[in-house]
Protein 1
Amino acid sequence: MTATIEERVAAHIKSASGADVIVNQVKLLTGGACQENFKVDVTLDGTATTFVLRSDAPTKLPGSIDRKEEFGVLERAAAAGVRTPKARWLGRGVVRDGGYAYLMDWVTGEAIGRKVTSAKELAGARAKLPGELGRELAKIHSVRPMREPDVNGSARALEPGFEPAQHTLRHMRASIDAIHGPRPALELIHRWLTEHAPTGEDVVLVHGDFRTGNFMVGPDGLVAILDWEFSHWGSRYMDLAWVCMRDWRFGQLDLPVGGFGARAPFYGAYEKESGVTLDPTLLYYWEIVGNLNWAIGSVYQSERYVYGGEDEFELVAIGRRAAEMELEALRLIEKGKI
Amino acid sequence: MQDAPTKETLLLALAKFLITEVRPVVTDSRLSFRLLIAANLAGIVAQECAGEDDQNRAELARLTALFTELDGEMTAPAAATLPTRKKEARAIALGNEKLAKGIASGAMDAAPGGPVFAHVKQTLTEKLAMDNPRFDAKRDLP
């Protein structure tokens, strides 16, 4: 690839859209572990506009999907009425050879966790968020696996006997086995979850990282649901519990929904939109799953530094935080309810 | 043994320097956040230097109560030439290996209220006292 990134993006948009394109600037915003985001300023048929270009990174995190799968998920979510930036023009090799990339409408707002939970100008938004998030999540979960098109491996999730909890337990088992050195706390939590695993759960589209920090908020409330790279087919309760976990409350421990709201309006809005009556036992179970998942994730981040040759010191700092999620899971197990 | 200042003092001085002298002149918000993490890491290591001997001894005592065979590990020939701190670390690693296996296989009772659960919880509490002293493990949450 000898052309500049501006030239490649211009050629891609032109061939995908047929519009007259001038790319004014392509600027790297964030380089994540599994995707890169660029801000793209363009003039489309004479009109100036801004997009986000999302591209596959050279590496991938376990459990994450590529931009092609993500694009398919976003199309399904948008069709279900989920508030998410419109995704367009999926292509291959736009940013790097072999990697997928697509453009997404630029949305403005605040996504940084501590600002969402404490910025003064978002006080009104925080009052509305639990209800809005409950309704959005119900819409996300209205997307069901299908054989054709096989979005993000959905055909596999339709196989008889597919149990979301078992699927998650197997995934976490493999992750614990890959960790260097014994971790009795992770083993204890995994065993408790194995002994208490529910069966017969619905299989729905799970966002997979539904928490404060991954949705954009403006003064009037929710703007858009972002960061779909961990979406998969599984239990609705995974998303319902994840946003309530202790670590995603950003210090506002008495506000269980994302550090800004009570549980009742969130669950109530979800039940009303979905027509599903939520089971407190499953909300409790999956909040423990969430803590184990994020404890494993924290250990994995530091292992990338220690054994994976990644030279990023925030990764190594996260490793010691695993004990917080481990202890929180133990607290929940001892308490017997959320 | 080194003369004073101790390693804890050096690390806390480093953390204080980063926060009081470097951070105020850093205008980039990402770098400022990373400086906080760096200072926090120095603080964690300082806590660990001060407390690790007691922490390790307590963990080993609890592990030995669960696995009486660990009793012999401190005097085992393989450990004979090691300094006490390394002998303890070796015995703890062995104990945790046994514990992880015992829990995973179902051979040990790991239910709340039992000694295994109590040990794992106590060990995490002691770790967090160093890694994040602000974490309130006793607080009930809604």
Protein 2
Amino acid sequence: MNFDFYDIFYYSCLLISAAIGLACLNKVERGFKWLAILMVLTVVSELIAKYLVYGLEKQDNNIVYHFFTPVEYAFYVIIFLQFLEDKKWHWRLWLSAIALFLFEILNTMYIQPLNVTSTNVIIAESVLLVFLSLVLFLKIRETPSQRILLREGVFWFNSAVLCYYAFSILVWGFHNMKVYNLDNAPQIIYDINMILSGLLYLSFSIAIVFNALSKPLMRNTHD
Amino acid sequence: MINLASLNSSDVIVFTLAGMLIIILLFGFIMYFLFTYRHKQRDFNLLQIQKDEIGTQKQLLEKTLIDLKSAQAQLIQSEKLASLGQLTAGIAHEIQNPLNFVNNFSEVNKELIDEMQVAIDTGNISDIKAISNDIKENQEKINQHGKRADAIVKGMLQHSRTSTGVYEPTDINALADEFLRLAYHGLRAKDKSFNVIMKTDFDKSIGKVNIIPQDIGRVFLNLITNAFYAVSSAPSTSKSPKGDLPYVPTVSITTKLIKSPLGDLGAKRSTGTETVEISIRDNGSGIPKDILDKIFQPFFTTKPTGQGTGLGLSLSYDIIKAHGGELKVETKEGEYAEFIITLPV
């Protein structure tokens, strides 16, 4: 099993974050509970991916990400719905999840089969998540709390999603562009992606810890 | 760790530039967000402070309201006691009459019994029968006047008692008559020189009206006392409406049964279309126009300090409104004032 620095960093961050998420599961708000579960699910998917390559000695593990990406987005939908606290977003978000799922099927059938990384779906998911993050930022701004913003879990979660998925669009867009030109993208962009992924999960764990430590928010809900 | 050779490629430069652009954009966005958020948060905190302050003020106001209600209840009680004071002299006078009868007839009976004993001793049966008949008649009169005194005392007790809020079928005419006399004797007891012509014109077809007698009695007492005050304080130079006769202070009470069209007064409580109108009129100096809209306001009085609470008319107005009725005033300065009560039957 070959593990380089980036792998070690990413998996360490993911495992630590998932462990923190599980430890704080009973102390956090519902949105963060789903976030902790998502991280555990990510660990499981990564374990399956590794098992496929090293256990079953398959050539690639792209199939895992074909399944995981829509599932991950569905989890994000649940999490954002908890934070947005607005019923008008329910059907919109679930519609986007269904659309992504359909796009994944079509993408697998016609563009990127199971043995190819489903970068199109990842990019689509990233675009949707960047949009959701901006919406949530707007909501946070409209309903300020009395606490310091930097000590709010939602702010950390949302900032991490915005930054990571904005870069994700760049990374996988770049990857697509190179593949389209029958070329290989430099390894460094994947390494950077690993670092960013690790930082994403670390930020999630920070968000969970802040939420676990905080008392229930008193927000101006304009009631 | 990083393949340095790959760093020279143009791809990496493009990627780095795009990455930096994203970093700048994200940093700018987050900074802008934090800045605007702080503004919003400041506004929100200010709003919270104001909200807390309003909450505190609300609590204070609620406490003040409770205090005011308590003060109002005390004032109502004071007003009742004041009206009871006005009644006391009248009641004393009213009781004095039946008591005089009781005393006189019992004295006469005592003498008649003495005579009867003589007649028994002489065996004069016809005298005994005549005397016993006289005693019986006197006894009936004693009983009658005793009942009258009893009724007066009961009336007084009823007036002083806190209103039970129970509507009872009541003879409006009798109630008005009773309070007219009580008010008159009450004033006479205080001021022997006070004199007034009292006129009543009761509509006997009214029958019994469903009212709270203690409350309506209080209204009558207030209005009649005011009328007496008006005629007693009217200038001696006042003339009768005709202008050529000397001033004769007059207070009149009129009751009338009015068959009003549907949807009129009291429709809330009464299914009938009949109303009773009770008017209390005096030929005093009337009410000046400039204070006409204030007379039903609490604590408004034209009487000298210490003579009136200024609650009489206000309470009367509230009582009549609570009965689903109306209290109106008609007046002509220098000639008359007439308070008209309309009650649903």
